[in-house]
């Protein structure tokens, strides 16, 4: 029996956990057993000492405990296997893993799959694992074993890509590495019949923005004969989708030369040449100043402007500015695909911000679609904060 230390909560601070919300904030803690270390698995107890569950403790951060189990079950290897196999069953049922032309998906979406602090993305037999807390990182062996046991031949390699996110949380002694098999650094995988080279080792996040799959698909359905500007294009996911949908021309804009290079290769790999696609290395805000009246569809998919609730107001200003800039010069009848992936800015705030920008730009605007993250990025019913990606398709007159 392992020795699991206890953390006791203050009176009434157990209510969230009893509703299965997985976060305990540092201010809710009354007492810690002596010797508890950063990243320890701890038993969480109410003010009266009753058992509430088990979680990973993070020292010095506002979310002090991420709950892993809400009953007597101790999170061990069989526990992880069970959670992982449940998560993978969801993706199998969604036909996202081994379908024809579709093998890119998120296998494990942290709180949405009952495993706070763990992200696993899947790229045709290769998993990229990101642990966001030291506690979850210590469970890496169980995670890899659970993935392999569940996916069997559908998993040939797993890359641990946690060092950067762990470093942000103060844990400096981690390096990224293959934890199962290996694969070439640029690994081809498919989304909705489109091929993408995934930069497993150097790429941002896990190498690809898996969460825009369904929104890219919608774009492809609306792109026939259209001229498209894809700002914040990264690896060209929206650009390839627009071309596949029959766009007459696509311009991809990003500040990163490396991102554009990968985007160009992806466009080429899907059978399109420089005749219909060009890449622009620029700051999106600066570029939009020059006007976008030449385009039928404009995509704005910036990185998260608000990384925390305290940055919310500044972020809203940022979204307003960038949407205003586009809306001011878009041509009548054109479409704006606009997104926010800031968790701290919710659906309503974002919609109101875009509406405010349309009013200020003096444009008549219809919201045609409200977009979200796809089903392989599920939101736990007990953790509504997990809904982070929102978008609108706005037709401008
Ligand atoms: N739409 C992409 C994901 C965007 S990620 C997809 O579907 O995959 C955000 C991208 O914005 C990154 O590639 C980053 O290099 C780029 N970026 C960040 N700041 C920028 C700026 N000021 N101007 C242009 N691009 C920027």
Can you offer a commentary on this structure?
With 397 residues, this protein is of the alpha/beta class. The protein folds into 3 domains: 6-69, Archaeosine Trna-guanine Transglycosylase, Chain: A, domain 4, CATH 2.30.130; 77-191, RNA methyltransferase domain (HRMD) like (Transcription Regulator spoIIAA); 209-396, Rossmann fold (3-Layer(aba) Sandwich). The chain is 28% helix and 28% strand. It is built from 11 helices and 20 strands. The protein is globular and about 65 Å long.
Give a concise summary:
This protein has helices spanning 15-18, 77-93, 134-137, 140-151, 163-168, 213-222, 237-244, 257-269, 284-289, 312-329, 347-361; strands spanning 6-9, 23-25, 29-32, 41-45, 51-57, 63-69, 104-109, 118-123, 126-131, 157-160, 177-180, 186-191, 194-199, 227-231, 249-254, 277-281, 297-300, 334-340, 365-372, 390-396. Strand 5 (51-57) and strand 6 (63-69) form a beta hairpin.
Q: Output the structural class.
A: alpha/beta
Q: What is the rounded distance between the termini?
A: 68 Å
Low-pLDDT stretches are none
Number of structural units classed as domains? 3
If you compute it from the alpha carbons, what radius of gyration comes out, rounded to the nearest whole angstrom?
Answer: 22 Å
Number of helical segments with 4 or more residues: 11
Which architecture name of the largest domain does CATH use? 3-Layer(aba) Sandwich
Total E-strand runs: 20
The fourth-level CATH homologous superfamily of the largest domain is Vaccinia Virus protein VP39
User: What does the largest sheet look like?
Assistant: 7 strands, mixed
The level 1 CATH classification of the largest domain is: Alpha Beta
The overall average pLDDT, rounded, is 95
Q: Which descriptor suits the 3D outline?
A: globular
Strand order of the largest sheet: 16-15-14-17-18-20-19
| Range of helix content | 25-40%
- Could you say which small molecules are bound to this protein? S-adenosyl-L-homocysteine
Strand content: 25-35%
CATH domain fold name of the largest domain: Rossmann fold
């Amino acid at each position: 029996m392992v020795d699991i230390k206890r953390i006791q909560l203050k009176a009434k601070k157990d209510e969230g956990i009893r509703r299965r919300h997985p976060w305990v904030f540092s201010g809710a803690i009354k007492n810690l057993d002596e010797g508890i270390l950063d990243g320890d698995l701890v038993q969480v107890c109410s003010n009266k000492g009753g058992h509430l569950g088990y979680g990973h403790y993070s020292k010095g951060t506002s979310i002090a405990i991420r709950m892993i189990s809400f009953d007597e079950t101790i999170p061990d290897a069989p526990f992880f296997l069970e959670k992982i196999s449940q998560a993978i069953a969801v993706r199998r049922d969604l036909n996202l893993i081994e379908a024809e032309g579709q093998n890119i998906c998120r296998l494990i979406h942290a709180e949405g799959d009952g495993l706070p602090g763990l992200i696993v993305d899947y790229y045709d037999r290769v998993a990229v694992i990101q642990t966001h807390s030291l506690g979850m990182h210590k469970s890496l062996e169980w995670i890899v074993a659970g993935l392999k046991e569940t996916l069997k031949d559908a998993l040939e390699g797993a890359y641990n890509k946690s060092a950067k996110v762990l470093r942000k949380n103060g844990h400096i002694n981690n390096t990224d590495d293959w934890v199962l098999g290996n694969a070439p650094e640029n690994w081809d995988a498919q989304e909705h019949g489109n091929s993408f080279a995934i930069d497993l080792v150097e790429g941002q996040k896990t190498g690809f923005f898996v969460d825009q799959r369904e929104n890219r698909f919608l774009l492809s359905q609306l792109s026939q004969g259209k001229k498209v500007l894809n700002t914040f294009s990264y690896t060209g996911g929206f650009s390839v989708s627009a071309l596949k949908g029959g766009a007459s021309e696509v311009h991809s804009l990003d500040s990163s030369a490396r991102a554009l290079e990968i985007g160009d290769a992806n466009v080429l790999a899907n059978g399109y040449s420089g005749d219909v696609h060009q890449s622009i290395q620029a700051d999106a805000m600066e570029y939009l100043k020059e006007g976008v009246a030449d385009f039928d569809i404009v995509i704005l998919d910036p990185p998260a402007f608000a990384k925390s609730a305290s940055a919310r107001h500044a972020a809203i200003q940022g979204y307003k500015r960038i949407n205003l800039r586009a809306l001011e010069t878009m041509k009548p009848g054109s479409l704006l695909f606009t997104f926010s992936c800031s968790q701290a800015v919710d659906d309503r705030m974002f919609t109101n911000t875009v509406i405010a920008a349309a009013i200020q730009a003096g444009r008549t605007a219809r919201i045609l679609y409200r977009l979200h993250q796809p089903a392989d990025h599920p939101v736990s019913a007990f953790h509504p904060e997990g809904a982070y990606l929102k978008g609108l398709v706005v037709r401008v007159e």
